[in-house]
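Re: export button greyed out
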Amino acid sequence: MISADTKPEESPYALWQQTVSARYKDRSFVARNRSGVEVDPVYGGLDRHGNEAEMPGQYPYTRGIYPIHYQFQPWMDLQIIGFGLPSQTRERMDLLLEQGGSKGYFDREAYNFIFDMPTSMGYDPDHPGVRGSIGDCGISVCKARDYEILLDGKDLAKTTVSMVLNAGSPAMLGLYLAAAKRRGFAFDKLGGNLTNYIWDFFGHSGGTNFSPRGSYRLIADIAAYCAEHVPLWNPLTISEHNICEAGATNVQAVAYSIAAIIAVNEECVKLGIDPDTVVPRFGFHVRYGENFFEEVAKTRALRRVYAKVNRERFGCKKSGSLQARIHAQTAGSLLTAQQPLNNLVRNAYGALAAVLSGANGMTINAYDEALGLPTEEAVTLSLRTSQIIAEETGAVHVSDPFGGSYYVEALTDEIERRVFEIIADIDDRGGLIACIESGWIKQQVSAAAYQWRQEIESGARTMVGVNKYTTDEPEQFAVFQPDPEAARLAIADVERHRRERDATRCAAALEDLRRAAVEVNEGRAIGSVMANLVAAAEADATLGEMQAILHEVFGRNK
Amino acid sequence: MTGTRAGSDAASLLKAVRDRDPLAIARAITAIENRTAVGTELAVAVRGRASRCRTLGVTGPPGAGKSSLINALLPELLPRYRRVAILTVDPSSPISGGAVLGDRVRMAAHSANPDVFIRSLAARGHLGGVTRTTRSVMDLLAAADMDLVIVETVGTGQSEVEVANLTDVKIVVCAPGLGDEMQAMKAGVLEIADLLVVNKADLPDAARTATHLTAMLHHRGHEERRSMLSVSTQTRDGLKALGDAIDDRFAGLPAGPPDAAAGGGISRSTLAQDVADAAAALLLGTSDPRLTTIVEHMSQGKLSRHEGAKAALELLTDLDGPSEARIYS
Amino acid sequence: MPDTAPQPRVLLTKSFIDSHDRAIATIALALRDAAMEVVLIDYEQPEDVVTVALQEDVDIIGLSFMSGGQVETTQKIVAELQRREVPDLPVVVGGVIRPFDVAPLEAVGVREIFRGGAPLTDVVATFDRLARAYRSHV
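Workaround output, generated via the alternate export path:
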C-alpha cells in the first residue's frame, strides 16, 4: 500500500508517468473534446483510504493492465463466426473482412470460430446420435484438411485464430497446428486462442467432458506444450462469461473463475511446472450486460484478485502472470426472442460497460441470436455497435474512467471481499475439483439461475418486452436457416477421408497418442499429449478418433 | 411388448410384470410407491419375492461416486446375474414434495441394455436413505425375474442404515478427501457394511484413506467380518475383485427358507403386516360413502381415531374385496 | 404425500452434446417446486429417451434444444414412442426453436413449444395439465 508520505518520485502517478515516457517516448495521448478541452489518458487522485490511488498498469492492476490502453491500442473486435461446412463459413469470413471487421492487433486478421456441437464436444459428423446438429450453430470441422479450406490463402503468421469449443479443444488444437505445419508455418509465429473449456464444470458440465481431474491434467499438458513450442498461443481462456451464462451471480462467477485458475496452477505445481512459464498466456472471457456498474466493478475486482492470487499464493513474478487479459462478450442469456430489436440496445450498453472496464477484445452478440443463428444484417450491426463506441462516443479517451468513483470503488472492494470468501470456502471443501465431484458447484450455480428466473417471473427484475412493456406483435424476422445438406456433405466427406488416408500411418500415430496419454495421466512427460495430437492430426486422424483415446485414458465426466 | 395391452388392475399388471414388460414393471412400481389400492394389492401379492434373488445395497456420502461405481460395476455383474435392476433414491424437497432425480444420468451407458432396468425413486420424506416402500418394489422386481436388485441410497449421512435390513450384501462407498463426511457416517453406516469400497483409487490420497479405514475396522478388536477394497472406476482397477467379493458374500449367505414367497417363514407378525396392507388397499380403493362419513366424523371429533379405525375395519368386511384369484394369481 | 392424487413424473432431457443446461436445470427446479418428480438425463441416442421414459413411468417428456437437432431428434423420439406402443405420451419441446422448426415439430405431434422467456408458471401449468391428462387415460 502506498502511504501518504511516499516520496513524490515514487508515487503511483510519478511512476506511471515514468513508465509512459519510457515506453511510448514523446507520443501524446491527450485527446480534445468537442469543446476543445484537453482530456488526459488517465486521471489519478486519492483512493478511498486517502492514499494516492493506484494507476493503470500497476499491481494489482485494478485499473487496467496497461498504463495507456485504448489510446494506444483499441480492443480487437471478434465477432463469433461459423456455420455449416468450412467452405460456407469461409464465405461469411470474406464478407466480414470486406466490411472492415476481423481486425486483430498489429494489422493481423482475427477470426473467432465457433463450432457445431458435435465438433465442440469432440465428435466426428458420422458419430451416431449427432446427426441433427451437424453444421447447425457452428462449423463442422474434424480433420486438418478442413483448416486448409477455412483458411485457404491466409498468412497464418498474420492471422489470429480463436477457437471456441468445449471437450474437443485439445484435439482441435492438434488439427490446427497440423494444418499450419503442412502449409509450412513455423509454430513460433502462430497466434491465437484455444478457449479450452474443458476446465468448465460450472455450466457446461455434460458427460462429453473429461473427468475433472483428467481435464485439469490435460490443461497443464497443453499449456506446457504451447509455452515451449507455440509461445504466442493462448491455450486457456477462463470464461467468467460461461459461468454467468449458466446462471451464477457476478461474484460467484469471478470467484469460480479464480478457483479454476487456482486448480490449474496447483496442477502445474504438482507436475513440476513453474506457473510463471504458463500463466502469462492464460486469459479471461468476461460477460457484460446485467448491471452496468456491477460489470465494471467486477472486472476491476477480477484483475485485482487474479494478480494477488498469482503473486501471493503461487509466487508468480512475471508481470504477465499478474495481468488478467480480458475478452469481453455481451450477455447471450439476456437476449430475448420477444421484441428482438431491444437486444441491440442491451448489447450496446453491455459493450459500453466492457469498454469502460478495460477490455482487450470484444464480441458483441447478434441481436437475433435468441431466434437462431445470426443473420448477416445482425452480425454487421454488432460490428457497428463496437465501431460507434470506439469512434464516436469518446469512451476510449480515458482509461478506467470510473476510477475514484465512490460507488464503483466501494463496489470493487466489496466484490473482492466476497470473492475471497468463496475461494476460502472452496479451499475448506477440499478444492475446486472436490467441489465439482461432489456436485456442490453445480447446485450453487443452478440455485442462482433459478433465483434469477423467479425474480423475472415475480416482476422483481424487469426484462423489457418480456415481463413489462410487452406487446402481442407477431414475431416476423428473417432467421438464418442452416443448409440441411451440410450434414450429408460432412458425413460423406469424413467417410471419404477415412477411405483415402494412409490407414497404417494413422493407426500408428493414434497408438503413439495413447501411449503418451497414459504417461501424462501418470504424471510424466507433460506436453507429450499435445505433441502427439499434432502428429496424429498430421497423419490424418480425425477429431473424434483422437478424442476417443483421450476419453479412454483421462476418463469421462459423470 | 408394452403395458398398453396390460390392464391397470393388479392382476393383469402382475401378469405383465411376470412377462417382464418394462412399462408394466414401471407402472407397478409407481402404484406401489404411490400406495394406491392397486399398488398395495400388488405389494401383498409379491411380498417376500426378493428373497429369491440377490440384493445389494450401495450407500456412502455425496461425492463418493455411488452411481458411477454401479455403472462401472455392471459389466462385471451382468455376466454373473443375467437381469439386473437398480433403484436409485434421491431426496424429495421438504417444502414442495417434488424431487429432481439425477442419478441415472451416470448410468447412461446401460440405457439400451434390455437386461438392465433402472428406476429413480424420490424419498418423499422417508428417512433412512430409501423410500417407504422400497422393500415392496424390490419384491416386485424379483417377481419380474430380476436376478439381482441393487439399491443405491440417498447418501446424505449417518441415518442411512435402513438399507441394511433390505439387502443381503451392503457396500459402503467412500472416496479420498471425504474425511469429514466419513467421520459423520462412521457411527451408523460403516457398521452395516459388508464391503467397504474406497473409490477413486487412482487419486493420490486413496492409499491414506484406505489405511485410515482399515484402522477404523480393526479398532474394536473383535472378529472382523467386513472387508475393504480399493477400486477406480476410471482405470477399472479393482472392479473385477469387487465383483468377486460380492459373489463370495452372496455365496456365504445362510440359505433362506426355500420358498419364502410361497409361505415359508410366515409368522403372525408377517400376517399382521399383510392384513394392514390389504386393508389399506381396500380402503384407498373404495368409493363407499360410509367411509367418507367415518372420516368426516373423525375430523369433526365425533369419533376418536381408535373408534374410527374400528368402524373402518367393520366396513371392510362389507366391501367387495379382492378375490382369491386376484391376489394369488 | 397424498395417496390418491400422485404428482406427475416428468422426464427432462437434452442431447449429450448440448452443453447448455441452464434452461433445463431451471425448469427442473420449477417443476420440483410444483411437487413433481423430475428425472433428468442426457441422451446419446434419441431412442434411449423412450427406454428411460418407460422405466421411469413418466407422464410427460420435455426435450431441450439449445444447439441444434430440434426436428430430427424429436422425429426419432416420437417414432420410437409409437414403436414401443406409447404414442400418447405427451412430448413438449423447449429452447431455441426457430420459426422453420415449428411446422415439422407440430406435424409429429409435439404438444407445446417453449421459447426462452416463456413464463415458468405457464411452463409448469402446461406440464401439469398434459401429465395429468395422460395419467388419467392409462
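Residues 9-135 of chain C form a domain with the Rossmann fold fold (CATH 3.40.50.280). The button fix ships in the next patch.
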